[in-house]
Specification:
There is one protein chain. By secondary structure, the protein is an alpha+beta fold. The protein has one domain (6-91): Irregular (HU Protein, Chain A). The protein is 41% helix and 29% strand. The protein has 3 helices and 5 strands, in the order H-H-E-E-E-E-E-H. The chain has helices at 6-17, 21-40, 86-91, and strands spanning 45-47, 51-58, 61-64, 71-74, 77-84. The strands form 2 sheets. Strands 1-2-5 form a 3-stranded antiparallel beta sheet. Helix 1 (6-17) packs across helix 2.
């Protein structure tokens, strides 16, 4: 599977939206920043027909260092989770 980076993605976006490349980069950066701000405020972001971004909280748990065998407790943490929407799943 090949990868597409921001540069190429924003060129495709510019072409589809009839924007300059600079404008599409600005749009993309603002879009990502808006999602980041919502997630930082612990608000889920749902984009219909695309998917849902959410922050999931995980409590502390016991872990073991495989090298030393030492058991320790990992601190609670938050992770960003993305769940693709039905429309996106069908297209992929």
């Amino acid at each position: 599977m090949s990868r597409i980076h921001k540069e190429e993605f924003t060129r495709i976006l510019a072409k589809k939206m009839g924007l300059s490349h600079k404008e599409s980069i600005r749009f993309f950066d603002n879009f990502v920043e808006a999602i980041r701000e919502c997630l930082s405020a612990e608000k889920n972001v749902t984009i219909r027909n695309f998917g849902k971004f959410e922050v999931r909280k995980y409590g502390e748990r016991k872990c073991r260092n495989p090298k030393t065998g030492e058991v320790f407790v990992s601190p609670p943490k938050k992770k960003i989770h993305f769940k693709a929407g039905k429309f996106l799943k069908e297209k992929v």
